[in-house]
Write a structure and sequence with these properties.
Blueprint (H helix, E strand, L loop, with lengths): L1 H4 L2 H69 L10 H14 L7 E9 L2 E10 L2 E11 L6
Antiparallel strand pairs: 1-2, 2-3
Helix pairs in contact: 2-3
């Protein structure tokens, strides 16, 4: 019987040892889980910025395709002897009107940065979770739409 009576403190010692081990390793595990979660959200945000920038590129391309069709229709509607508007000025006027009113409608902003002869340069800014990121520049040559 003396042997069994000496075992009473052993269970308490084992429980305290287990709690101590869990207390040591739990913060490490929680830190790893939170760190990977934060890293996942950062990568997801970067992917969203890339996809929004691609959407802006597609939007610009479609705008230029439509403007090229409008310019061809404009040229075919001219009377004989009437001087046509240059492609540069036609595109510039259409593009400035298109992009001046759309900033708050999308999750990306398109700024017409520079017009040099037949090349238009745009700055693309994307917005994800109220954070803006410059996604780069995009240059289009209007001659590419008249092949």
């Amino acid at each position: 019987m003396n042997y069994i009576k000496n075992q009473h403190g052993y269970a308490l010692l084992v429980v305290l040892l287990i709690i101590t081990v869990i207390g040591i390793f739990a913060p490490i595990l929680v830190n790893n889980v939170l760190s990977s979660s934060k890293q996942f959200s950062i990568v997801e945000e970067q992917m969203q910025h890339e996809k929004l920038a691609n959407m802006a590129y597609i939007y610009i391309d479609r705008t230029f395709e439509e403007t090229a069709k409008e310019y061809v229709a404009y040229l075919s509607s001219l009377d004989e002897g009437e001087d046509p508007q240059s492609p540069e000025s036609f595109f510039t006027s259409r593009v400035q009107v298109e992009y001046s009113n759309q900033y708050d409608k999308q999750a990306y902003k398109i700024n017409l940065d520079n017009v040099l002869n037949t090349q238009f340069t745009f700055n693309i800014i994307t917005q994800v979770n109220s954070e803006e990121a410059a996604s780069g520049t995009y240059t289009i040559n209007i001659n590419d739409y008249f092949n």
